[in-house]
Amino acid sequence: MYRKKINLEIVPIEEININDRSFCISYPDFNERLNSSIKKIGIIQPLIVKKQYPFVVISGFKRLKSAINLGMEKLPCIIYDITDIDACIISINENLFREMNLVEKAHCINMILNFGFSMEEIYGIMEQIGVGRHENIIKKMIKIANSEKILKDFIVERNISLKNVDYLLWFEPEVRERIINLTGKFHFTESLLREILQMLTLIKIKTDDLPFEELHTLNNPFEIKEALKKRINPGIKKLEDEFKNIRRNLKLPDNVTIKIDPFFEKEYIDIMIKAKDKSELEVALKSLTENLKSKGMEAIFGITKNRIAE
Amino acid sequence: MGLQKIELLNKEGNFVRDCPGTKNHICCGYKNIDLIEGCILSCSYCILKHYIKDEKIKINLNIKSIITEIDDLIEKEHNHILRFGTGELSDSLALDRRYNLNKPLIEYFGEKKKAIFELKSKWAQIEHLKPFLNPYTVISFSVAPQNIIDKEEKRTSPLYKRLKTLKKAQDLGCFIGLHLDPIIIYEGFEHDYYWLIEDIGRILDLDRIIWISLGLLRFPAKMMDIFIQEKRKNLLFGEFIKGEDGKYRYIKGERIRVYKTIYDLLKNKNENLFIYLCMERADVWKESFGINISKSEDLITLFDNRIKYLYGGMI
Q1: B52, B38 Cβ separation under 8 angstroms
Q2: What is the pTM of this model?
Q3: If we measure between CA atoms, which residue out of A73, A71, A52 comes closest to residue A10?
Q4: Contact B218/B279 with Cβ under 8 angstroms?
Q5: Which candidate from B239, B252, B256 shows the least CB-CB separation from A233?
Q6: What SS3 class is residue B8?
Q7: How far is B29 from chain A (nearest CA, A)?
Protein backbone atom coordinates (compact mmCIF):
# COMPACT_ATOMS: atom_id res chain seq x y z
CA MET A 1 0.00 0.00 0.00
CA TYR A 2 1.54 3.33 1.04
CA ARG A 3 5.00 1.80 1.34
CA LYS A 4 5.22 1.79 -2.46
CA LYS A 5 4.90 5.54 -2.75
CA ILE A 6 7.74 6.94 -0.72
CA ASN A 7 10.18 9.74 -1.54
CA LEU A 8 12.92 11.22 0.58
CA GLU A 9 13.39 14.91 -0.14
CA ILE A 10 14.77 18.06 1.38
CA VAL A 11 11.70 20.27 1.62
CA PRO A 12 11.69 24.06 2.08
CA ILE A 13 9.83 24.88 5.28
CA GLU A 14 7.40 27.20 3.49
CA GLU A 15 6.13 24.17 1.56
CA ILE A 16 4.98 22.59 4.81
CA ASN A 17 1.67 23.57 6.36
CA ILE A 18 2.99 24.24 9.85
CA ASN A 19 -0.47 24.94 11.25
CA ASP A 20 -2.13 21.67 10.18
CA ARG A 21 -2.07 19.45 13.25
CA SER A 22 -4.57 16.87 12.02
CA PHE A 23 -2.13 14.01 12.62
CA CYS A 24 -0.41 15.43 15.67
CA ILE A 25 -0.31 13.23 18.77
CA SER A 26 2.71 14.68 20.61
CA TYR A 27 2.14 16.82 23.66
CA PRO A 28 3.92 19.03 24.45
CA ASP A 29 5.29 19.56 20.96
CA PHE A 30 8.51 21.16 22.11
CA ASN A 31 11.38 19.34 23.75
CA GLU A 32 14.35 21.31 25.04
CA ARG A 33 16.80 18.40 24.75
CA LEU A 34 15.74 17.60 21.21
CA ASN A 35 16.03 21.28 20.37
CA SER A 36 19.62 21.40 21.64
CA SER A 37 20.50 18.27 19.71
CA ILE A 38 19.03 19.65 16.46
CA LYS A 39 20.86 22.88 17.07
CA LYS A 40 24.13 20.94 17.36
CA ILE A 41 23.84 18.27 14.70
CA GLY A 42 20.68 19.02 12.76
CA ILE A 43 17.74 16.74 12.04
CA ILE A 44 18.94 13.14 11.72
CA GLN A 45 15.57 11.44 11.39
CA PRO A 46 13.45 12.91 8.59
CA LEU A 47 9.89 14.10 9.23
CA ILE A 48 7.08 12.12 7.64
CA VAL A 49 4.74 14.24 5.55
CA LYS A 50 1.68 13.60 3.43
CA LYS A 51 1.93 14.35 -0.26
CA GLN A 52 -0.26 17.36 -0.95
CA TYR A 53 0.48 21.03 -1.30
CA PRO A 54 1.49 22.38 1.13
CA PHE A 55 2.74 19.17 2.76
CA VAL A 56 0.99 18.04 5.97
CA VAL A 57 3.13 16.64 8.75
CA ILE A 58 2.25 13.11 9.85
CA SER A 59 5.12 12.57 12.24
CA GLY A 60 7.84 14.90 13.52
CA PHE A 61 5.96 17.78 15.12
CA LYS A 62 8.63 18.31 17.79
CA ARG A 63 11.35 18.39 15.13
CA LEU A 64 9.25 20.84 13.12
CA LYS A 65 8.81 23.12 16.14
CA SER A 66 12.55 23.09 16.82
CA ALA A 67 13.32 23.77 13.17
CA ILE A 68 11.04 26.81 13.24
CA ASN A 69 12.56 27.87 16.55
CA LEU A 70 16.05 27.55 15.16
CA GLY A 71 15.20 29.33 11.93
CA MET A 72 15.96 26.33 9.70
CA GLU A 73 14.88 26.79 6.10
CA LYS A 74 14.85 23.23 4.80
CA LEU A 75 13.93 19.93 6.40
CA PRO A 76 14.52 16.29 5.42
CA CYS A 77 11.12 14.71 4.83
CA ILE A 78 9.82 11.32 3.77
CA ILE A 79 6.87 12.02 1.53
CA TYR A 80 4.04 9.50 1.53
CA ASP A 81 1.35 9.55 -1.12
CA ILE A 82 -1.36 8.07 1.06
CA THR A 83 -4.91 8.50 2.34
CA ASP A 84 -5.77 10.28 5.62
CA ILE A 85 -6.60 6.95 7.26
CA ASP A 86 -3.18 5.55 6.38
CA ALA A 87 -1.58 8.76 7.62
CA CYS A 88 -3.35 8.27 10.97
CA ILE A 89 -2.05 4.72 11.21
CA ILE A 90 1.52 5.89 10.51
CA SER A 91 1.18 8.66 13.07
CA ILE A 92 0.00 6.20 15.74
CA ASN A 93 2.66 3.63 14.93
CA GLU A 94 5.40 6.24 14.98
CA ASN A 95 4.39 6.96 18.61
CA LEU A 96 3.85 3.39 19.78
CA PHE A 97 7.51 2.72 20.54
CA ARG A 98 7.41 5.12 23.50
CA GLU A 99 5.11 5.59 26.52
CA MET A 100 2.47 8.13 25.53
CA ASN A 101 1.14 10.48 28.18
CA LEU A 102 -2.60 10.86 28.82
CA VAL A 103 -2.95 13.95 26.60
CA GLU A 104 -1.21 12.16 23.72
CA LYS A 105 -3.50 9.18 24.12
CA ALA A 106 -6.44 11.60 24.04
CA HIS A 107 -5.07 13.24 20.87
CA CYS A 108 -4.71 9.83 19.32
CA ILE A 109 -8.31 8.82 20.01
CA ASN A 110 -9.63 12.21 18.97
CA MET A 111 -7.70 11.94 15.69
CA ILE A 112 -9.03 8.53 14.74
CA LEU A 113 -12.56 9.64 15.57
CA ASN A 114 -12.16 12.68 13.34
CA PHE A 115 -11.03 10.49 10.44
CA GLY A 116 -14.00 8.14 10.71
CA PHE A 117 -12.43 4.89 11.95
CA SER A 118 -14.95 2.19 12.81
CA MET A 119 -15.73 1.48 16.49
CA GLU A 120 -13.94 -1.86 16.26
CA GLU A 121 -10.82 -0.15 14.86
CA ILE A 122 -11.05 2.54 17.56
CA TYR A 123 -11.31 -0.06 20.34
CA GLY A 124 -8.36 -1.94 18.79
CA ILE A 125 -6.19 1.19 18.83
CA MET A 126 -7.32 2.00 22.40
CA GLU A 127 -6.05 -1.41 23.44
CA GLN A 128 -2.74 -0.82 21.61
CA ILE A 129 -2.11 2.46 23.41
CA GLY A 130 -3.19 1.06 26.77
CA VAL A 131 -6.60 2.67 27.29
CA GLY A 132 -9.69 0.80 28.50
CA ARG A 133 -12.25 -0.12 25.82
CA HIS A 134 -15.29 1.85 26.88
CA GLU A 135 -17.56 4.48 25.40
CA ASN A 136 -17.17 6.61 28.53
CA ILE A 137 -13.39 6.61 28.14
CA ILE A 138 -13.78 7.83 24.57
CA LYS A 139 -15.98 10.71 25.78
CA LYS A 140 -13.43 11.68 28.42
CA MET A 141 -10.57 11.47 25.93
CA ILE A 142 -12.36 13.79 23.50
CA LYS A 143 -12.80 16.29 26.30
CA ILE A 144 -9.11 16.09 27.19
CA ALA A 145 -8.00 16.42 23.56
CA ASN A 146 -10.07 19.57 23.18
CA SER A 147 -9.28 21.08 26.56
CA GLU A 148 -7.26 24.21 27.25
CA LYS A 149 -3.46 24.33 27.41
CA ILE A 150 -3.30 24.90 31.16
CA LEU A 151 -5.13 21.62 31.81
CA LYS A 152 -3.04 19.67 29.30
CA ASP A 153 0.16 21.00 30.84
CA PHE A 154 -1.05 20.14 34.33
CA ILE A 155 -1.94 16.59 33.25
CA VAL A 156 1.46 16.00 31.65
CA GLU A 157 3.64 17.77 34.21
CA ARG A 158 1.94 16.11 37.20
CA ASN A 159 1.10 12.82 35.51
CA ILE A 160 -2.53 13.22 36.62
CA SER A 161 -4.72 10.11 36.48
CA LEU A 162 -7.81 9.93 34.30
CA LYS A 163 -9.99 9.82 37.43
CA ASN A 164 -8.62 13.13 38.67
CA VAL A 165 -8.76 14.66 35.20
CA ASP A 166 -12.39 13.63 35.16
CA TYR A 167 -13.00 15.69 38.30
CA LEU A 168 -11.18 18.67 36.78
CA LEU A 169 -13.21 18.41 33.58
CA TRP A 170 -16.38 18.58 35.66
CA PHE A 171 -15.71 22.28 36.33
CA GLU A 172 -16.15 25.20 33.97
CA PRO A 173 -12.81 26.17 32.32
CA GLU A 174 -12.36 29.36 34.37
CA VAL A 175 -12.99 27.53 37.68
CA ARG A 176 -10.74 24.70 36.50
CA GLU A 177 -7.96 27.20 35.86
CA ARG A 178 -8.31 28.56 39.39
CA ILE A 179 -8.15 25.02 40.81
CA ILE A 180 -5.04 24.25 38.77
CA ASN A 181 -3.43 27.49 39.94
CA LEU A 182 -4.24 26.56 43.53
CA THR A 183 -3.20 22.92 43.47
CA GLY A 184 -0.30 23.53 41.13
CA LYS A 185 1.49 25.33 43.98
CA PHE A 186 1.94 22.08 45.87
CA HIS A 187 2.96 18.48 45.39
CA PHE A 188 0.09 16.06 45.84
CA THR A 189 -0.25 12.35 45.90
CA GLU A 190 -2.92 11.12 43.49
CA SER A 191 -5.20 10.08 46.36
CA LEU A 192 -4.88 13.40 48.19
CA LEU A 193 -5.59 15.29 44.98
CA ARG A 194 -8.60 13.08 44.41
CA GLU A 195 -9.94 13.78 47.90
CA ILE A 196 -9.48 17.50 47.40
CA LEU A 197 -11.07 17.53 43.96
CA GLN A 198 -14.02 15.48 45.18
CA MET A 199 -14.56 17.88 48.07
CA LEU A 200 -14.37 20.85 45.72
CA THR A 201 -17.04 19.33 43.45
CA LEU A 202 -19.26 18.68 46.45
CA ILE A 203 -18.90 22.23 47.74
CA LYS A 204 -19.63 23.55 44.26
CA ILE A 205 -22.79 21.44 44.03
CA LYS A 206 -23.95 22.40 47.51
CA THR A 207 -23.13 26.10 47.51
CA ASP A 208 -22.39 26.96 43.88
CA ASP A 209 -19.27 28.71 45.13
CA LEU A 210 -15.69 27.79 45.99
CA PRO A 211 -13.66 29.40 48.77
CA PHE A 212 -10.57 30.25 46.67
CA GLU A 213 -9.63 33.30 48.73
CA GLU A 214 -9.37 31.24 51.90
CA LEU A 215 -7.63 28.32 50.17
CA HIS A 216 -4.95 30.52 48.62
CA THR A 217 -3.85 31.63 52.10
CA LEU A 218 -3.01 28.05 53.12
CA ASN A 219 0.48 26.65 53.20
CA ASN A 220 0.21 23.03 52.15
CA PRO A 221 -2.21 20.46 50.68
CA PHE A 222 -3.09 19.07 54.10
CA GLU A 223 -4.28 22.47 55.24
CA ILE A 224 -6.38 22.69 52.08
CA LYS A 225 -7.84 19.28 52.80
CA GLU A 226 -8.69 20.27 56.38
CA ALA A 227 -10.28 23.55 55.31
CA LEU A 228 -12.45 21.76 52.76
CA LYS A 229 -13.33 19.00 55.20
CA LYS A 230 -14.58 21.63 57.63
CA ARG A 231 -17.04 22.76 54.98
CA ILE A 232 -18.03 19.29 53.80
CA ASN A 233 -18.16 17.62 57.21
CA PRO A 234 -18.98 20.31 59.77
CA GLY A 235 -20.58 17.70 62.02
CA ILE A 236 -17.52 15.45 62.03
CA LYS A 237 -15.24 18.43 62.62
CA LYS A 238 -17.33 19.43 65.65
CA LEU A 239 -17.17 15.89 67.02
CA GLU A 240 -13.40 15.76 66.49
CA ASP A 241 -12.95 19.03 68.39
CA GLU A 242 -15.23 17.84 71.17
CA PHE A 243 -13.37 14.54 71.42
CA LYS A 244 -10.00 16.31 71.64
CA ASN A 245 -11.42 18.58 74.31
CA ILE A 246 -12.76 15.73 76.44
CA ARG A 247 -9.60 13.70 75.97
CA ARG A 248 -7.54 16.66 77.19
CA ASN A 249 -9.72 17.14 80.28
CA LEU A 250 -9.46 13.47 81.25
CA LYS A 251 -5.78 13.91 82.09
CA LEU A 252 -4.85 10.32 81.34
CA PRO A 253 -1.21 9.21 81.57
CA ASP A 254 0.79 9.08 78.34
CA ASN A 255 0.65 5.29 78.10
CA VAL A 256 -3.18 5.31 77.78
CA THR A 257 -4.67 6.01 74.38
CA ILE A 258 -8.37 6.31 73.61
CA LYS A 259 -9.28 5.72 69.99
CA ILE A 260 -12.62 6.45 68.40
CA ASP A 261 -13.98 5.67 64.95
CA PRO A 262 -12.93 8.55 62.64
CA PHE A 263 -16.53 8.89 61.42
CA PHE A 264 -17.98 8.50 64.94
CA GLU A 265 -20.09 5.65 63.62
CA LYS A 266 -19.06 2.65 65.74
CA GLU A 267 -20.71 2.24 69.13
CA TYR A 268 -17.51 1.45 70.96
CA ILE A 269 -14.16 3.07 71.74
CA ASP A 270 -10.76 1.40 71.95
CA ILE A 271 -8.65 1.98 75.06
CA MET A 272 -5.01 1.01 74.69
CA ILE A 273 -2.53 0.72 77.54
CA LYS A 274 1.16 0.42 76.85
CA ALA A 275 2.95 -0.95 79.91
CA LYS A 276 6.36 -2.48 80.26
CA ASP A 277 5.90 -3.48 83.92
CA LYS A 278 3.26 -3.93 86.60
CA SER A 279 3.64 -0.45 88.05
CA GLU A 280 2.97 1.25 84.69
CA LEU A 281 -0.12 -0.88 84.28
CA GLU A 282 -1.26 0.01 87.80
CA VAL A 283 -0.86 3.74 87.12
CA ALA A 284 -2.85 3.43 83.90
CA LEU A 285 -5.64 1.41 85.49
CA LYS A 286 -5.83 3.71 88.50
CA SER A 287 -6.17 6.74 86.26
CA LEU A 288 -8.83 5.04 84.16
CA THR A 289 -10.75 4.02 87.29
CA GLU A 290 -10.65 7.58 88.62
CA ASN A 291 -11.77 8.94 85.28
CA LEU A 292 -14.68 6.49 85.19
CA LYS A 293 -16.30 8.62 87.89
CA SER A 294 -15.84 11.78 85.84
CA LYS A 295 -18.34 13.13 83.37
CA GLY A 296 -15.65 13.11 80.70
CA MET A 297 -15.67 9.34 80.25
CA GLU A 298 -19.45 9.38 79.89
CA ALA A 299 -19.12 12.18 77.36
CA ILE A 300 -16.80 10.05 75.24
CA PHE A 301 -19.46 7.36 74.98
CA GLY A 302 -21.94 10.13 74.19
CA ILE A 303 -19.75 11.12 71.26
CA THR A 304 -20.06 7.63 69.78
CA LYS A 305 -23.77 8.49 69.55
CA ASN A 306 -22.80 11.86 68.07
CA ARG A 307 -23.96 13.69 71.18
CA ILE A 308 -22.18 16.94 71.90
CA ALA A 309 -22.51 18.53 75.31
CA GLU A 310 -23.98 22.04 74.97
CA MET B 1 -32.61 6.62 27.91
CA GLY B 2 -33.26 3.76 25.49
CA LEU B 3 -35.64 0.87 25.94
CA GLN B 4 -34.25 -1.91 28.07
CA LYS B 5 -34.11 -5.42 26.69
CA ILE B 6 -35.95 -8.12 28.55
CA GLU B 7 -34.64 -11.64 28.80
CA LEU B 8 -37.02 -14.41 29.77
CA LEU B 9 -35.40 -17.28 31.69
CA ASN B 10 -36.52 -20.67 32.84
CA LYS B 11 -33.93 -21.46 35.49
CA GLU B 12 -34.17 -23.98 38.29
CA GLY B 13 -33.55 -23.19 41.98
CA ASN B 14 -31.69 -20.59 44.07
CA PHE B 15 -34.18 -17.79 43.70
CA VAL B 16 -34.79 -17.14 47.36
CA ARG B 17 -32.07 -15.68 49.52
CA ASP B 18 -31.76 -13.93 52.85
CA CYS B 19 -31.41 -10.17 52.77
CA PRO B 20 -27.61 -9.81 52.76
CA GLY B 21 -27.66 -7.45 55.75
CA THR B 22 -24.74 -5.30 56.86
CA LYS B 23 -22.14 -6.05 59.52
CA ASN B 24 -23.02 -4.46 62.88
CA HIS B 25 -26.41 -3.32 61.59
CA ILE B 26 -29.81 -4.66 62.57
CA CYS B 27 -31.47 -6.62 59.78
CA CYS B 28 -35.16 -7.60 59.69
CA GLY B 29 -34.54 -11.11 58.34
CA TYR B 30 -36.43 -10.59 55.10
CA LYS B 31 -36.36 -13.22 52.35
CA ASN B 32 -35.79 -11.93 48.84
CA ILE B 33 -37.28 -13.69 45.86
CA ASP B 34 -35.23 -12.95 42.75
CA LEU B 35 -38.13 -13.11 40.35
CA ILE B 36 -36.93 -10.19 38.25
CA GLU B 37 -33.44 -8.71 38.09
CA GLY B 38 -33.37 -5.13 36.86
CA CYS B 39 -35.90 -2.35 36.72
CA ILE B 40 -37.65 -0.23 34.10
CA LEU B 41 -38.07 2.65 36.52
CA SER B 42 -35.33 5.21 36.70
CA CYS B 43 -34.56 6.36 40.23
CA SER B 44 -31.40 8.43 40.36
CA TYR B 45 -30.28 6.94 43.68
CA CYS B 46 -30.98 3.31 42.72
CA ILE B 47 -28.13 1.00 43.70
CA LEU B 48 -29.35 -1.74 41.36
CA LYS B 49 -27.41 0.00 38.59
CA HIS B 50 -24.33 -0.62 40.68
CA TYR B 51 -25.06 -4.22 41.65
CA ILE B 52 -26.50 -5.53 38.40
CA LYS B 53 -23.94 -5.15 35.68
CA ASP B 54 -26.18 -6.58 32.94
CA GLU B 55 -28.31 -3.92 31.26
CA LYS B 56 -30.94 -6.50 30.35
CA ILE B 57 -33.87 -7.11 32.66
CA LYS B 58 -33.99 -10.81 33.48
CA ILE B 59 -37.33 -12.38 34.31
CA ASN B 60 -37.58 -15.87 35.64
CA LEU B 61 -40.68 -17.61 34.39
CA ASN B 62 -40.17 -20.80 36.36
CA ILE B 63 -42.65 -19.86 39.09
CA LYS B 64 -43.19 -23.52 39.94
CA SER B 65 -39.57 -23.89 40.96
CA ILE B 66 -39.71 -20.65 42.97
CA ILE B 67 -42.82 -21.83 44.84
CA THR B 68 -41.16 -25.17 45.64
CA GLU B 69 -38.21 -23.30 47.12
CA ILE B 70 -40.44 -20.97 49.16
CA ASP B 71 -42.56 -23.87 50.39
CA ASP B 72 -39.48 -25.72 51.53
CA LEU B 73 -38.28 -22.70 53.53
CA ILE B 74 -41.69 -22.15 55.15
CA GLU B 75 -41.98 -25.81 56.16
CA LYS B 76 -38.48 -25.82 57.67
CA GLU B 77 -39.04 -22.65 59.71
CA HIS B 78 -40.49 -23.27 63.16
CA ASN B 79 -39.53 -20.14 65.09
CA HIS B 80 -40.57 -17.20 62.96
CA ILE B 81 -43.18 -16.10 60.48
CA LEU B 82 -41.30 -15.65 57.26
CA ARG B 83 -41.68 -12.56 55.14
CA PHE B 84 -40.89 -12.76 51.43
CA GLY B 85 -40.67 -10.05 48.82
CA THR B 86 -39.76 -9.49 45.18
CA GLY B 87 -38.82 -5.84 45.53
CA GLU B 88 -35.10 -6.17 46.20
CA LEU B 89 -33.66 -6.58 42.70
CA SER B 90 -36.57 -4.99 40.91
CA ASP B 91 -39.87 -3.19 41.35
CA SER B 92 -42.54 -5.77 42.23
CA LEU B 93 -45.30 -4.27 40.08
CA ALA B 94 -43.75 -2.27 37.24
CA LEU B 95 -43.71 -5.20 34.80
CA ASP B 96 -46.39 -7.32 36.41
CA ARG B 97 -49.39 -6.46 34.27
CA ARG B 98 -47.42 -7.51 31.20
CA TYR B 99 -45.94 -10.74 32.56
CA ASN B 100 -48.43 -11.74 35.28
CA LEU B 101 -45.72 -13.07 37.56
CA ASN B 102 -47.22 -12.27 40.95
CA LYS B 103 -50.59 -13.97 40.50
CA PRO B 104 -49.42 -17.55 41.21
CA LEU B 105 -47.34 -16.35 44.16
CA ILE B 106 -50.26 -14.40 45.64
CA GLU B 107 -52.45 -17.47 45.24
CA TYR B 108 -49.81 -19.72 46.80
CA PHE B 109 -49.40 -17.53 49.91
CA GLY B 110 -53.18 -17.18 50.19
CA GLU B 111 -53.56 -20.93 50.30
CA LYS B 112 -50.51 -21.56 52.50
CA LYS B 113 -51.54 -19.06 55.21
CA LYS B 114 -48.19 -19.45 56.98
CA ALA B 115 -46.10 -16.58 55.69
CA ILE B 116 -46.35 -13.08 54.26
CA PHE B 117 -45.67 -12.07 50.67
CA GLU B 118 -44.88 -8.42 50.09
CA LEU B 119 -45.11 -6.59 46.79
CA LYS B 120 -42.84 -3.56 47.10
CA SER B 121 -43.22 -0.94 44.42
CA LYS B 122 -43.36 2.61 43.15
CA TRP B 123 -45.71 1.65 40.35
CA ALA B 124 -49.33 2.21 41.34
CA GLN B 125 -51.02 -0.51 39.34
CA ILE B 126 -52.87 -3.35 41.07
CA GLU B 127 -56.10 -3.58 39.04
CA HIS B 128 -54.98 -6.80 37.32
CA LEU B 129 -54.36 -8.43 40.72
CA LYS B 130 -57.72 -7.49 42.25
CA PRO B 131 -59.40 -10.89 41.84
CA PHE B 132 -56.50 -12.73 43.51
CA LEU B 133 -55.52 -10.49 46.41
CA ASN B 134 -55.82 -11.96 49.88
CA PRO B 135 -54.63 -10.94 53.38
CA TYR B 136 -51.34 -12.83 53.02
CA THR B 137 -50.13 -10.45 50.36
CA VAL B 138 -49.01 -7.06 51.58
CA ILE B 139 -49.05 -4.24 49.04
CA SER B 140 -46.26 -1.84 49.85
CA PHE B 141 -45.13 1.37 48.28
CA SER B 142 -42.01 3.40 48.74
CA VAL B 143 -43.18 6.91 49.39
CA ALA B 144 -41.39 10.23 49.23
CA PRO B 145 -42.43 13.86 48.91
CA GLN B 146 -43.67 14.65 45.39
CA ASN B 147 -40.78 17.11 45.10
CA ILE B 148 -38.35 14.18 45.28
CA ILE B 149 -40.46 11.92 43.06
CA ASP B 150 -40.35 14.63 40.37
CA LYS B 151 -36.61 15.07 40.53
CA GLU B 152 -35.21 11.70 41.54
CA GLU B 153 -37.78 8.99 40.72
CA LYS B 154 -38.36 9.29 37.00
CA ARG B 155 -41.00 7.05 35.39
CA THR B 156 -42.59 6.15 38.75
CA SER B 157 -46.16 6.84 39.82
CA PRO B 158 -46.89 10.16 41.53
CA LEU B 159 -47.43 10.19 45.27
CA TYR B 160 -51.21 10.69 45.14
CA LYS B 161 -51.57 7.64 42.88
CA ARG B 162 -49.43 5.52 45.19
CA LEU B 163 -51.50 6.53 48.22
CA LYS B 164 -54.80 6.06 46.36
CA THR B 165 -53.71 2.59 45.24
CA LEU B 166 -52.69 1.68 48.78
CA LYS B 167 -56.12 2.74 50.00
CA LYS B 168 -57.68 0.61 47.30
CA ALA B 169 -55.59 -2.37 48.50
CA GLN B 170 -56.80 -1.76 52.05
CA ASP B 171 -60.38 -1.66 50.80
CA LEU B 172 -59.77 -5.01 49.09
CA GLY B 173 -58.81 -6.55 52.44
CA CYS B 174 -55.04 -6.36 52.24
CA PHE B 175 -52.68 -5.00 54.79
CA ILE B 176 -50.35 -2.45 53.32
CA GLY B 177 -46.77 -1.43 53.98
CA LEU B 178 -45.02 1.90 53.62
CA HIS B 179 -41.35 2.37 52.98
CA LEU B 180 -40.00 5.84 53.60
CA ASP B 181 -36.78 4.77 52.00
CA PRO B 182 -34.61 6.44 50.96
CA ILE B 183 -35.34 9.47 53.08
CA ILE B 184 -33.32 12.26 51.52
CA ILE B 185 -32.01 15.25 53.43
CA TYR B 186 -32.31 18.31 51.19
CA GLU B 187 -33.12 21.94 51.75
CA GLY B 188 -36.59 22.07 53.29
CA PHE B 189 -37.04 18.30 53.52
CA GLU B 190 -38.58 18.48 57.01
CA HIS B 191 -41.45 20.56 55.67
CA ASP B 192 -42.03 18.16 52.76
CA TYR B 193 -41.94 15.08 55.01
CA TYR B 194 -44.34 16.74 57.42
CA TRP B 195 -46.87 17.10 54.60
CA LEU B 196 -46.14 13.61 53.30
CA ILE B 197 -47.08 12.19 56.69
CA GLU B 198 -50.14 14.44 56.79
CA ASP B 199 -51.21 12.92 53.43
CA ILE B 200 -50.57 9.40 54.71
CA GLY B 201 -52.71 10.10 57.79
CA ARG B 202 -55.47 11.68 55.72
CA ILE B 203 -55.75 9.06 52.97
CA LEU B 204 -54.90 5.69 54.55
CA ASP B 205 -56.45 3.59 57.29
CA LEU B 206 -53.52 3.70 59.70
CA ASP B 207 -54.74 0.65 61.62
CA ARG B 208 -54.29 -1.48 58.53
CA ILE B 209 -50.69 -0.53 57.83
CA ILE B 210 -48.72 -3.62 58.76
CA TRP B 211 -45.34 -1.91 58.85
CA ILE B 212 -43.54 1.28 57.99
CA SER B 213 -39.83 1.23 57.31
CA LEU B 214 -37.57 4.23 57.58
CA GLY B 215 -34.22 4.29 55.82
CA LEU B 216 -32.09 7.31 55.16
CA LEU B 217 -30.19 7.51 51.88
CA ARG B 218 -27.13 5.27 51.68
CA PHE B 219 -25.18 4.23 48.63
CA PRO B 220 -21.99 2.45 47.54
CA ALA B 221 -18.92 4.65 47.23
CA LYS B 222 -18.86 4.36 43.44
CA MET B 223 -22.22 6.08 43.22
CA MET B 224 -20.83 9.24 44.76
CA ASP B 225 -19.04 9.92 41.47
CA ILE B 226 -22.25 9.35 39.53
CA PHE B 227 -24.16 11.77 41.76
CA ILE B 228 -21.37 14.32 41.33
CA GLN B 229 -21.29 13.89 37.55
CA GLU B 230 -25.07 14.26 37.41
CA LYS B 231 -24.95 17.21 39.84
CA ARG B 232 -27.57 15.64 42.12
CA LYS B 233 -27.92 18.53 44.52
CA ASN B 234 -30.71 16.89 46.53
CA LEU B 235 -28.80 13.65 47.00
CA LEU B 236 -25.57 15.38 47.98
CA PHE B 237 -27.03 18.03 50.26
CA GLY B 238 -26.49 16.29 53.61
CA GLU B 239 -23.28 15.44 55.47
CA PHE B 240 -22.00 11.99 54.57
CA ILE B 241 -19.59 9.59 56.18
CA LYS B 242 -18.30 6.25 54.92
CA GLY B 243 -19.77 3.47 57.04
CA GLU B 244 -18.17 0.18 58.07
CA ASP B 245 -19.56 -1.44 54.92
CA GLY B 246 -17.90 1.19 52.72
CA LYS B 247 -21.25 2.76 51.84
CA TYR B 248 -21.89 6.44 52.21
CA ARG B 249 -24.59 7.37 54.71
CA TYR B 250 -25.51 10.48 56.62
CA ILE B 251 -23.58 11.25 59.80
CA LYS B 252 -25.08 9.35 62.73
CA GLY B 253 -26.26 12.44 64.64
CA GLU B 254 -28.29 13.55 61.62
CA ARG B 255 -29.74 10.08 61.14
CA ILE B 256 -30.88 9.99 64.74
CA ARG B 257 -32.42 13.46 64.49
CA VAL B 258 -34.30 12.71 61.26
CA TYR B 259 -35.51 9.25 62.33
CA LYS B 260 -36.73 10.67 65.62
CA THR B 261 -38.58 13.52 63.90
CA ILE B 262 -40.32 11.23 61.41
CA TYR B 263 -41.03 8.60 64.06
CA ASP B 264 -42.69 11.22 66.26
CA LEU B 265 -44.72 12.61 63.36
CA LEU B 266 -45.98 9.13 62.49
CA LYS B 267 -46.64 8.08 66.08
CA ASN B 268 -48.60 11.30 66.59
CA LYS B 269 -50.91 10.12 63.83
CA ASN B 270 -51.37 6.68 65.33
CA GLU B 271 -49.60 5.33 68.41
CA ASN B 272 -50.00 1.72 67.21
CA LEU B 273 -48.04 2.07 63.98
CA PHE B 274 -45.24 -0.49 63.65
CA ILE B 275 -42.19 1.45 62.53
CA TYR B 276 -38.79 -0.07 61.95
CA LEU B 277 -35.41 1.04 60.70
CA CYS B 278 -33.88 -0.60 57.66
CA MET B 279 -30.24 -1.54 58.21
CA GLU B 280 -29.40 0.63 61.18
CA ARG B 281 -27.15 0.32 64.18
CA ALA B 282 -28.42 -0.65 67.61
CA ASP B 283 -27.56 2.72 69.13
CA VAL B 284 -29.47 4.55 66.38
CA TRP B 285 -32.53 2.43 67.25
CA LYS B 286 -32.13 3.34 70.89
CA GLU B 287 -31.50 7.05 70.35
CA SER B 288 -34.22 7.57 67.73
CA PHE B 289 -37.03 5.30 68.91
CA GLY B 290 -36.01 4.59 72.51
CA ILE B 291 -36.14 0.86 71.70
CA ASN B 292 -33.45 -1.58 72.76
CA ILE B 293 -32.64 -3.80 69.82
CA SER B 294 -29.24 -5.37 70.22
CA LYS B 295 -29.36 -7.93 67.42
CA SER B 296 -31.34 -8.80 64.30
CA GLU B 297 -33.17 -11.59 66.12
CA ASP B 298 -34.79 -8.95 68.39
CA LEU B 299 -36.24 -7.16 65.39
CA ILE B 300 -37.42 -10.39 63.77
CA THR B 301 -39.30 -11.15 67.01
CA LEU B 302 -40.95 -7.73 66.86
CA PHE B 303 -42.12 -8.57 63.33
CA ASP B 304 -43.50 -11.93 64.52
CA ASN B 305 -45.43 -10.17 67.27
CA ARG B 306 -46.76 -7.56 64.87
CA ILE B 307 -48.01 -10.19 62.43
CA LYS B 308 -49.56 -12.29 65.19
CA TYR B 309 -51.28 -9.18 66.57
CA LEU B 310 -52.81 -8.29 63.19
CA TYR B 311 -53.60 -11.81 61.93
CA GLY B 312 -54.55 -13.44 65.22
CA GLY B 313 -55.03 -17.14 64.60
CA MET B 314 -55.14 -16.70 60.85
CA ILE B 315 -51.44 -17.36 60.39
Answers
A1: yes
A2: 0.88
A3: A73
A4: yes
A5: B239
A6: strand
A7: 22
